[in-house]
Amino acid sequence: MDWSLLNFARSGLAVLLSLLLILYWYIRIPNDMPQNIPTVPIYISIMGLWSDMGQDDIYDKWLRPKLEKYGAVKIWFAGRWNVLATRPRLLVDMFRHEDVYAKAGSQKKIPWSVIASLVGDNIINAHGENWKLYTSIMKPGLQRRITDSGPLLLKSRRFVDVLIEEQGGLDSGGVLVNPIIQRWALSCMGINFMNVDLECLEKPGQRLEQLQTIIKKTLFKPLFFNFPDLDRYPTLFPQRATAFSIMQEFGDLLVETVKQRIQTTDADGEQVVDGLDKALATNEITTEQYRANLKVTFLTAHENAQQLLNSAIWVLGSNTTIQDKLREEVLSLSTSNPTTDQLNSLPYLYAVILELLRLYPPVSQLINRVTTSSAVLGGEVPIPNHTWVGWNAYGVHTDPNVWGSDARTFRPERWGGDVKGIHGAVRSKTVQCHFIAFNSHSRKCLGQGFAVLQMKVCLFEMARRLVWVVDPDYELKLTSGGIMAPLGLRAIMTERVEVKEGNWQGEDK
Ligand code: HEM
């Protein structure tokens, strides 16, 4: 008998058993998690490691049956078990009681991680006194009334120019739209919140723009997204060390850019960056808080609109009847320079945007609240103290129990036929948590007015000057996690003859 070999095998077995025990301890469902809701098996959450299924398909196959029956499930996300809900009754309770279901983003959940180093403690993920402080500083800039749609119109005009130029340079097929949309979204964000014209459409390939593409790829890497504990070991995973330095570079470059900014001509000094500058100068906030809030404004104010516009090009480019109806309404204004009020008077344009937000909610799922005591969600689901809870907007918006048997059909008319009626529908559906694209109650989106206006301006300009169809070779695939949108969309852009030849009944092109 070779004793040394036997001993070696024994030690190997012991190590293996210990590892299995640690793994079991790490991924086991705590006993006090609610027993009256089902569990989504852990392999569904980590599927991104071996599959590139879209989040709509994943939802349909593994989450929808359970969530439509029980209203909530236990699910693995970001290295722990959480409660995810879609039943509006449960969500009203969650969103109305921020004291019990307190906002707690990555800075609380996984403070050592790459994502936490990117976002820090900011207006979206903070709770209590910090949130009140950030809101008092930033809300005026976030909700600044935009009476002049001119600057946004100029950016959308340039965006359409670039689409036409790119199409002209292709022998066949459609334009890859996402990179151009990103440049549009960054430009609109810059002039409205950072008081700086980043000129991303005019000067492509700037470092700040490049970093966005890198950051988005880095954040949603399935292995680190699901097991953020690995971010503790950047020496073992050198790509995470790179990720940390990319996040640092982005923060530094952004601060430098806004410091160097030449004020845009129409700037009124009341943008988010101006509020943050004043608060930093008077020591109301620390440098760290300044950076975190600047970065989150930069990211939120471009990324969601970017992905919503991708979805818009997909939906309207694969359903030309809707595109034609929208064009008819837009042309009825008989101007190429509509005022904000004129754009706000168009019901179909508004309803199309709402329907896009319903079926393609950019923020499709978030698990960023933690219970501050034991609680019974909606009087139904007992949740222990210090448990992370969240919601899935795609699930709520496509649930036939909430939106009827045609819940999954794109039908803008469901929102109503006149602007006043549509406003009323948005209000009541948001309060009831039937529509949560911008969340609801105390922590709802502070940029939604701007986001909707920005979309109105861009869709106005696109419908007025272009006819587009989705490239017949393109097959729809949605992102597998994170912000929801079509991936790699290509669309064939044709300039409308009337505009091209100057036969436009309104003012100049
Ligand atoms: C289509 C575009 C947009 C969508 C779909 C969207 C969606 C959302 C959602 C779902 C939330 C809640 C997040 C949570 O529960 O943690 C939120 C919060 C927020 N959004 Fe937006 N957003 C959009 C555009 C914007 C823009 C342009 C800004 C401007 C900077 C903005 C600023 C904020 C802020 C500051 C909050 C936090 C509010 C608070 O907690 O008090 N959003 N947004």
Brief summary of the model shown:
The chain crosses the membrane at residues 7-27. The protein is of the alpha+beta class. The protein is built from 22 helices and ten strands.
Describe this structure in words.
The chain has a single domain (33-500), classed as Cytochrome p450 (Orthogonal Bundle), CATH 1.10.630. The chain has 22 helices and ten strands. It has helices at 3-27, 42-45, 55-70, 88-96, 106-109, 114-119, 128-142, 150-168, 178-194, 207-219, 222-226, 238-259, 272-281, 287-318, 320-331, 340-344, 347-359, 393-397, 400-403, 419-431, 448-465, 497-500; strands at residues 72-77, 80-85, 101-103, 175-176, 365-371, 375-377, 381-383, 388-392, 466-470, 490-495. The strands form three sheets. It has a five-stranded mixed β-sheet. Strands 4-10-9 form a three-stranded antiparallel β-sheet. Strands 6-7 form a two-stranded antiparallel sheet. α7 crosses α13 (272-281), α8 (150-168) packs across α21 (448-465) and α14 packs parallel to α21. The radius of gyration is 24 Å and the shape is globular. The model is unreliable at 505-509 (pLDDT under 50). The structure holds protoporphyrin IX containing FE. Protoporphyrin IX containing FE binds next to α7, α14, β5 and α21. Its cofactor is heme. Heme binds at residue 445. InterPro entries: Cyt_P450, Cyt_P450_E_grp-IV, Cyt_P450_sf, Cytochrome_P450_monoxygenase.
- The number of distinct structural domains comes to 1
What small molecules does the structure contain?
protoporphyrin IX containing FE
Mean pLDDT: 94
Largest sheet: 5 strands, mixed
- Beta percentage is 5-15%
Cofactor: heme
Binding site for heme: 445
InterPro entries: Cyt_P450, Cyt_P450_E_grp-IV, Cyt_P450_sf, Cytochrome_P450_monoxygenase
GO biological process, one term: mycotoxin biosynthetic process
